[in-house]
Amino acid sequence: MTVVGYAPGAYDLFHVGHLNILRHAAEHCDRLIAGVVSDEMLLLTKGRLPVVPLAERLEIVRSLRFVDAVHAEVVPDKMDTWREVGFDVLFKGDDWRGTAKGEKLELDFAAVGVQIRYFPYTMHTSSTILRKALAVIAEEPVGRSRAISS
Predict the structure, then answer these.
(1) Distance between CA 29 and CA 14 in Å, rounded?
(2) Interatomic CA distance for residues 2 and 127, integer angstroms
(3) How many CB atoms lie within 10 A of CB 78?
(4) CATH number, domain containing residue 49
(5) 57 is a domain residue
(6) Is 56 among the domain residues?
(7) I want to staple 7 with a disulfide (CB 3.0 to 4.6 A). Which of 58, 66, 70, 91 is the partner?
């Protein structure tokens, strides 16, 4: 039996955390589908649009050798996505584990036999951190550079 995995995410400002979750997901299934959340769904669920538009995010994720297919997520309910795509395992960052959203996901998918598998969240890099850094850089006066220290 072929195990189909699904790894949803915004994949905005693609970084090593995104790469890690997709690479780990691919190691735990026979076929990996990456769900790239649409601009409209990000606005609805996070209250903001992505920096990188959907078509470009789809192309970036599609280009990874361990991603077999991409799916543009245009509905807010992952169960609707499952009905459309069909997968056996859903992969998420472990920042979802133990949260109300994560527990709902686990309950909903347990009812249809889909396993939820968590992978370590990359704490030192996130799209939120990158957005903040870009905002600081954008506010720098022209002609001045600022050294970013850690």
Answers:
(1) 22
(2) 32
(3) 23
(4) 3.40.50.620
(5) yes
(6) yes
(7) 91
The tokens for 87 are: 């997968």
Helices (H) and strands (E) in the chain, counts: 6, 5
Instruction: Give residue 126's domain range.
Output: 4-138
DSSP type of residue 125:
-
* Cβ neighbour number for residue 109 with a 10 Å cutoff: 19
Q: Single out the residue of 25, 16, 37, 22 nearest to residue 89, CA to CA.
A: 25
Which residue, 10, 2, 3, is CA-closest to 92? 10
Give 69-100 pLDDT, tens digit per residue.
999 999 999 999 999 999 999 999 888 899 99
**What gap in Å lies between CA 130 and CA 96, rounded to an integer?**
20
Distance CA 128, CA 133 (A): 9
Q: What pLDDT score was predicted for residue 128? A: 64
Closest CA to 35 of 49, 52, 54, 16: 54
* Number of domains forming the structure of the chain: 1
